[in-house]
Recover the amino acids of this structure.
């Protein structure tokens, strides 16, 4: 028992998530930032202190959850809560098969399923602003959005095929100690559909203005907008019951619940 | 209150539009009547549309009645090759660039199923220029990966139309290859021809410059500056050249459905050695005859038709000609059959032109020996050879010696060069024509003789031999002089 704990501490960063259902979380300090969308009049949005999972939820973790809550297994899942492709890459209800790594992010899960998963851990899905706030950090700074290399890294992911099959924790560790915000999979947020992009982008006038407002070249700010735009556009194409191969999730929780985390750990 | 007001506005707009249409086309009343008429055409039966990847097109509609047509279009983001050794991640309609060809007739009711492959990362949609409605369908078709959207439209204007993705950033989706053509044939179909092909031009913007090897990501800055590294037909360099050239036989009539996806450039479409008998200007109903070069706007098209009268290889180009020879906008139509000397004789005589009369002279060749002064070191040779290369050779063999697939052989790691330096010297002195094989690929083109001194020939070849993985042969002016003294090797028969 004691030994097990010791090992898990040692391997925490890489594999802790394999052993139990309780993912490692890190605290995120409060702050404010101007998101690409959703802020009225481009005023900064305040983000209160919270905690977020270090890694996205993995196949193994999700399987453990399903064993506890079999009504969320593939064959039992209600159609209104997830479409037909829900966990379609798994071999069966309780087996993610040999083609999927245990420590690869679980994908093909709907918003309903992701939300339920987090709630069953005493957590919640991160709000979009919270997610974006964490995602704007690179290795060294809280807000790296104006850094060209950072944006190029994000965008290079768009051209890399099949990253969903990669194990978690192989991208960079950001300022907060969080991995895989970029370069692995898209992630659900609690209020993913709170910003409406029609998809007929030429009608979404403001967004176009943000992106290409008369500029003769792309500067770092444009690049940043353009990288972020892809996330908002992707979210805009989703419905809560949708599942896609490149879309996973991670959980968050309010700061006040810190004590509970330890309780849960025990 | 408000909706009513909008409705009123809209109806005013429609009235204005109709009035304008009448005003503009007052001398072509038939078409106006038709627009309404096509809307009222009843459909008979239903079928799934045949979709084809370029350069092929689906079967003509012929005299079939208007039908309900099911189009199943799958979007795939996939890695492909822009040129030999150059990888690019394309976003495609149906797995090809340009996307699959859709063939309808006027009055058809199209049920469009847009499917976004589950492995894709991006949401996409489609704007078909053949659609009358908001966004050309784009407002109804934003589809997440692993999902499908369905919308319906009726084709009420015959013509050849572009379709493309309109998800932001629109330019990026188009630049990655998300465009294609949809044909709306008139009642009774287009007049039958012997051959039909599908070609579409597009400009591409990569991080590395033309020919730079490896995986090349999209470059937004170059796209905004409209400074493409590649301008190509059918999505990649050499897609319809060499073995993949489109073909016809002497006496046949060829119809090319030619589109331009852009995103930026306008195409000056021309077929070297042919004259378009007919051009449906901008893909519409008006026909122009006997056209040399037709302008195809970005997001536009043209239908060109011509009868091929003589055999040979006819080169399709964007006549903004640096695009053809330096950026890849080059295709081939190979025509087989009997010669027709009346139409084209071929070279009938070859001789020396001496404007000043007088005795036989051989000016350019005498130049060769005149200037030899001091022997250069090898690095000096390479240096001056590099400059010479930049003036004389790069236009065809390209700045990094990579050549142009199916047109100009590469000088990079060239087995042809390394095997026989004397042959290389001869090629520079006297030119080279006819079929040769370089690094396993066949080339059949003409290199002209270069008017260079012995020193210059030695320098430029030494530069080439000491670059790009060649065998570092050093060519001395003396060696060039010796070869110049010999008679030129008999040229392979030129046509």
């Amino acid at each position: 028992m004691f030994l097990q704990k010791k090992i898990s501490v040692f391997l925490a960063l890489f594999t802790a998530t394999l052993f139990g259902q309780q993912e490692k979380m890190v605290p995120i300090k409060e702050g404010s930032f101007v998101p690409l969308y959703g802020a009225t009049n481009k005023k900064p949005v305040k983000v209160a202190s919270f905690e977020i999972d270090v890694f996205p939820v993995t196949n193994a973790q999700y399987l453990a959850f399903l064993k506890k809550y079999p009504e969320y297994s593939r064959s039992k899942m209600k159609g209104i809560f997830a479409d037909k492709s829900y966990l379609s890459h798994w071999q069966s209800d309780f087996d993610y098969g040999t083609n999927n790594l245990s420590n690869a992010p679980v994908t093909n899960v709907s918003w309903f399923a992701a939300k339920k998963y987090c709630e069953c851990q005493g957590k919640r899905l991160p709000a979009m602003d919270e997610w974006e706030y964490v995602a704007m950090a690179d290795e060294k700074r809280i807000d790296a959005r104006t850094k060209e290399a950072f944006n190029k890294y994000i965008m290079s992911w768009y051209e890399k095929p099949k990253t969903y099959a990669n194990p978690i924790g192989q991208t960079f560790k950001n300022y907060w100690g969080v991995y895989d915000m970029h370069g692995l999979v898209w992630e659900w947020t609690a209020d993913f559909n709170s910003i409406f992009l029609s998809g007929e982008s030429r009608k979404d006038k403001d967004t176009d203005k943000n992106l290409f407002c008369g500029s003769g070249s792309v500067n770092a700010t444009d690049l940043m907008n353009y990288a972020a735009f892809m996330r908002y556009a992707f979210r805009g194409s989703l419905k809560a019951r949708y599942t896609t191969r490149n879309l996973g999730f991670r959980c968050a929780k309010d700061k006040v619940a810190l004590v509970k985390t330890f309780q849960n750990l025990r | 209150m408000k909706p009513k007001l909008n409705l009123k506005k809209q109806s005013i707009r429609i009235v204005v539009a109709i009035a304008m249409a009448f005003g503009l086309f007052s001398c072509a009343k038939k078409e106006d009547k038709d627009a309404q008429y096509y809307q009222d055409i009843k459909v008979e039966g239903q079928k799934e549309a045949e979709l084809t990847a370029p350069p092929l097109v689906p079967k003509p509609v012929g005299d079939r009645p208007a039908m309900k047509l099911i189009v199943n279009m799958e979007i795939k983001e996939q890695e492909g090759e822009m040129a030999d050794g150059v990888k690019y991640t394309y976003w495609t309609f149906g797995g090809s660039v340009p996307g699959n060809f859709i063939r309808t007739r006027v009055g058809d009711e199209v049920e469009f199923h847009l499917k976004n492959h589950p492995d894709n990362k991006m949401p996409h949609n489609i704007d078909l220029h053949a659609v009358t409605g908001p966004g050309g369908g784009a407002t109804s078709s934003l589809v997440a990966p692993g999902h499908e959207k369905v919308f319906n439209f009726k084709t009420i204007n015959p013509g050849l139309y572009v379709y493309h993705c309109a998800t932001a950033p629109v330019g990026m989706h188009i630049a990655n290859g998300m465009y294609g053509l949809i044909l709306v044939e008139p009642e009774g179909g287009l007049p039958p021809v012997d051959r039909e092909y599908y070609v579409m031009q597009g400009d591409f913007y990569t991080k590395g410059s033309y020919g730079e090897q490896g995986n090349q990501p999209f470059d937004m800055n170059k796209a905004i500056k409209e400074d493409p590294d590649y301008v190509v037909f059918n999505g990649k360099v050499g897609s319809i050249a060499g073995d993949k050239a489109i073909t016809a036989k002497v006496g046949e009539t060829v119809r090319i459905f030619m589109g331009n996806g852009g995103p930026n450039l306008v195409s000056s479409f021309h077929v070297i050695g042919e004259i378009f008998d007919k051009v449906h200007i901008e893909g519409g109903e008006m026909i122009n005859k006997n056209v040399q070069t037709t302008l195809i706007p970005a997001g536009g098209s043209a239908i060109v038709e011509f009868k091929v009268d003589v055999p040979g290889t006819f080169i399709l180009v964007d006549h903004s000609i640096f695009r053809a020879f330096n950026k890849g906008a080059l295709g081939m139509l190979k025509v087989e059959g009997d010669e027709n000397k009346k139409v084209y004789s071929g070279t009938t005589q070859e001789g020396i032109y001496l404007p000043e009369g007088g005795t036989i002279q051989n000016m350019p060749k005498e130049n060769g020996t005149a200037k030899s002064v001091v022997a250069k070191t090898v690095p000096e040779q390479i240096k001056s050879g590099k400059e010479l290369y930049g003036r004389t050779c790069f236009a065809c063999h390209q700045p990094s010696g990579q050549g142009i697939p199916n047109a100009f052989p590469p000088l990079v790691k060239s087995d042809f060069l390394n095997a026989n330096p004397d042959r290389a010297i001869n090629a520079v002195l006297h030119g080279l024509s006819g079929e040769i094989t370089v690094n396993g690929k066949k080339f059949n083109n003409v290199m002209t003789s270069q008017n260079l001194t012995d020193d210059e020939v030695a320098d430029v070849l030494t530069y080439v031999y000491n670059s790009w993985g060649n065998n570092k042969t050093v060519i001395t002016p003396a060696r060039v002089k010796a070869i110049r003294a010999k008679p030129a090797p008999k040229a392979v028969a030129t046509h």
The interface with chain A takes residues 77-79, 89, 118-123, 125, 134-135, 138-139, 141-147, 166-170, 215, 217-218, 220-221, 224-225 of chain B (CB under 8 Å).
